[in-house]
C-alpha cells in the first residue's frame, strides 16, 4: 500500500470509553495532539438510566460531551460504542444515534461493540461452523444468547439501522501490530453478516500493558519496513494515567512512534483511504475461514479481544 505524503506506514488508535474519566482523556489526548497524532475516540452518547455494566464517562455529562466536541474540532474522530454503558433497546439505540448526530454533526463513521445485548454479530456470532462450536466450548457458553443486535425478533435489534447509519464496524483483534497484514481484506463486507456495511480489524492493546507489548520497537520497525497499517485497539482508562500523571513508558513510546515517518490519521480516515484505493472487499468463504481461525487461535492462546 502506498500512503499519502510519502509516509512509510499508517498508524492510528481506537480508544473505547470504558473506565475513562475526563481528566484521563484530557491528559492522553493532550499528549497525542502535541505529538501530531490524530486518532479515534469512541463514546457512549446517552447517560445510563439503569445499572451500568462498566465505569466511564458518557456524553450525558455536559462537561465530558464538550471535551469530546473539542477533540473533534482538533482533528480527532469520535466513534460509537453502543448507546450507553448498559444494554439498550432498539429505541434507545436510535435515540443514541440521534444524539450522536446532534453532538458531532453526522452519523458515526466507525463503531465498536460494547458488551451490551445490542452488540451486533458478537459472541459466538463472530464466527461460524466448527469455529463457533470451539468458541462456545472454550468459553463454556458464557456468551451464548447474550447479543442480539442482529436478531430481528429481539427488542435490542438495530441491524437495519446499523447498515444505514454506520460505515465501519470493528470485529477481530489480533496480537500483531500490523493489522493490515493480519486482516488483508479490511475493510470488507461479509455476506453472512449483512447488517454491517463494512468490517475492520484491530491490533491488541486493551490496557496499558497490552498496548506497550504490541507497540514494541521491533514491531514498529517491522511495520515501517513492510509499509503496513495499524489500528491499535485500547482503553485509555485502563492504566495509562497514575495519580494524575501519564505513565512514563506510554509517553516515551508515543514520542518514539511520532518520530517515525507514519501517516497518523483517525481510523475512519485510514479505512476510507484503503477502500478508495482498492474498493470494498467482499469476503469469500475461504477468506472468512482463514480470518476466523486466525483470530480464534490467538484468542484461545493469547486472550486477544
Account of the 3D structure:
It contains eleven helices and twelve strands. The protein is α/β, with parallel strands linked by helices. It has a single domain (4-302), classed as TIM Barrel (Alpha-Beta Barrel), CATH 3.20.20.370. Strands 1, 2, 3, 8 and 11 form a five-stranded parallel sheet that branches. It has a three-stranded parallel sheet with strand order 4-5-7. Strands 6-12 form a two-stranded parallel ribbon. The mean pLDDT is 97.
Q: For the record, what is the CATH homologous superfamily label?
A: Glycoside hydrolase/deacetylase
Number of strands: 12
Kindly name the structural category. Answer: alpha/beta
Oligomer: single chain
Unreliably modeled segments: none
Gyration radius over CA: 18 Å
Q: Total domains, how many? A: 1
How would you summarize this macromolecular structure in one to three sentences?
By secondary structure, this protein is an alpha/beta fold. The protein has helices spanning 22-34, 62-73, 90-104, 129-138, 159-165, 179-182, 208-214, 217-226, 248-258, 267-278, 285-302, and strands at 9-15, 40-43, 77-80, 110-111, 168-174, 188-189, 199-203, 229-234, 241-242, 245-246, 262-264, 281-282.
Amino acid at each position: 500500500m502506498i500512503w499519502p505524503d510519502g509516509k512509510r506506514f499508517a498508524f492510528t488508535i481506537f480508544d473505547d470509553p470504558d473506565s475513562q474519566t475526563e481528566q484521563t482523556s484530557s491528559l492522553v489526548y493532550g499528549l497525542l495532539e502535541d505529538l501530531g497524532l490524530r486518532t479515534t475516540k469512541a463514546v457512549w452518547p446517552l447517560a445510563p438510566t439503569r445499572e451500568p455494566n462498566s465505569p466511564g464517562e458518557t456524553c450525558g455529562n455536559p462537561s465530558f460531551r464538550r471535551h469530546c466536541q473539542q477533540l473533534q474540532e482538533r482533528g480527532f474522530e469520535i466513534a460509537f460504542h453502543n448507546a450507553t454503558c448498559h444494554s439498550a433497546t432498539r429505541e434507545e439505540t436510535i435515540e443514541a444515534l440521534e444524539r450522536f448526530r446532534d453532538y458531532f454533526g453526522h452519523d458515526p463513521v466507525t463503531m465498536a461493540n460494547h458488551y451490551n445485548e445490542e452488540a451486533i454479530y458478537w459472541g459466538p456470532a463472530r464466527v461460524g461452523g466448527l469455529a463457533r462450536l470451539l468458541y462456545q466450548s472454550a468459553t463454556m457458553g458464557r456468551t451464548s444468547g447474550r447479543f442480539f443486535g442482529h436478531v430481528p425478533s429481539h427488542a435490542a435489534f438495530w441491524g437495519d439501522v446499523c447498515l444505514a447509519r454506520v460505515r465501519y464496524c470493528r470485529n477481530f483483534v489480533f496480537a500483531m501490530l500490523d493489522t493490515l497484514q493480519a486482516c488483508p481484506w479490511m475493510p470488507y463486507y461479509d455476506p453472512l453478516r449483512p447488517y454491517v456495511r463494512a468490517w475492520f480489524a484491530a491490533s491488541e492493546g486493551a490496557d496499558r500493558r497490552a498496548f506497550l507489548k504490541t507497540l514494541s520497537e521491533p514491531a514498529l520497525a517491522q511495520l515501517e519496513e513492510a509499509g503496513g497499517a495499524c489500528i491499535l485497539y485500547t482503553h485509555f482508562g485502563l492504566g495509562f494515567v497514575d495519580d494524575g500523571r501519564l505513565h512514563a513508558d506510554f509517553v516515551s513510546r508515543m514520542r518514539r512512534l511520532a518520530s517515525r515517518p507514519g501517516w497518523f490519521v483517525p481510523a475512519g480516515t485510514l479505512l476510507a483511504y484503503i477502500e478508495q484505493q482498492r474498493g470494498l472487499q467482499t469476503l469469500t468463504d475461504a477468506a472468512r475461514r482463514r480470518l476466523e481461525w486466525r483470530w480464534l487461535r490467538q484468542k484461545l492462546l493469547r486472550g486477544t479481544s
